[in-house]
């Protein structure tokens, strides 16, 4: 993520927990831009990323000068969590992002729910843990679910086997044996909520293999009798077949 931060030219105070890097580059860039707007105190950049309700809240913060009071004290803004349901798939349509904001008093959390609108991400604030920790990095991996771990994140954290299989599925799904693929599908279906993008990828891979196996089973060992050849010609007459 360090190279992406550098490429985007964001504020030096913007950080990204490496363990939370998403597969989808567009999601990564949007989370970084969200953090950068806070680090710079750039209300206009932030406004473009917020839904209407949160734009009004930003207006209130600016009117009371609380926006400037808070952002002037920022030492770091770190992307500490992106929910696994959106982090592990290409082209997610919704996400949950948690930022840790560090100032001289400690580090606190800001939770955000995002949805894809055409090619852009639009964010709205969600409840987060009211605690503070010494540094922003101390919040790494904290789920946006009110500051706790929920859904897929909790299952991955408590299931190393599932975590390893998910990683393998994302990087080299074709190398997973069919037995493991079916097991992974069942485990994902048991999640609440199940990540639709990942589930769809696995179902497509299973269907592809089943189709391939069916095709190879039906094409082998052609009959030596006249009936077999005649049946084939009747089912699929070629351009040069009987007219």
From TrEMBL:
Biased composition (Gly residues): 215-228
Biased amino acid composition, Basic and acidic residues: 205-214
Organism: hydrothermal vent metagenome
Protein name (database record): Uncharacterized protein
Region (Disordered): 202-243
């Amino acid at each position: 993520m360090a190279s992406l931060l550098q490429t985007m030219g964001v504020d030096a105070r913007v950080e990204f927990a490496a363990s939370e890097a998403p597969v989808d580059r567009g999601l990564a860039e949007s989370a970084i831009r969200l953090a950068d707007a806070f680090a710079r105190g750039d209300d206009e950049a932030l406004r473009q990323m917020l839904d209407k309700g949160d734009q009004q809240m930003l207006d209130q913060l600016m009117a009371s000068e609380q926006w400037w009071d808070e952002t002037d004290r920022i030492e770091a803004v770190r992307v500490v969590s992106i929910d696994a349901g959106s982090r592990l798939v290409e082209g997610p349509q919704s996400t949950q992002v948690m930022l840790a904001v560090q100032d001289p008093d400690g580090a606190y959390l800001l939770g955000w729910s995002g949805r894809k609108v055409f090619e852009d991400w639009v964010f709205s604030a969600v409840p987060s843990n009211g605690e503070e920790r010494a540094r922003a990095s101390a919040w790494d991996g904290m789920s946006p679910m009110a500051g706790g771990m929920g859904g897929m994140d909790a299952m991955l954290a408590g299931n190393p086997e599932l975590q390893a299989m998910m990683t393998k599925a994302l990087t080299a799904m074709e190398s997973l044996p069919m037995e493991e693929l079916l097991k992974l599908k069942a485990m994902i279906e048991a999640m609440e909520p199940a990540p639709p993008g990942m589930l769809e990828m696995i179902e497509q891979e299973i269907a592809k293999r089943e189709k391939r196996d069916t095709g190879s089973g039906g094409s082998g060992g052609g009959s030596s009798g006249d009936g077999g050849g005649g049946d084939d010609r009747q089912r699929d007459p070629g351009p040069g077949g009987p007219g």
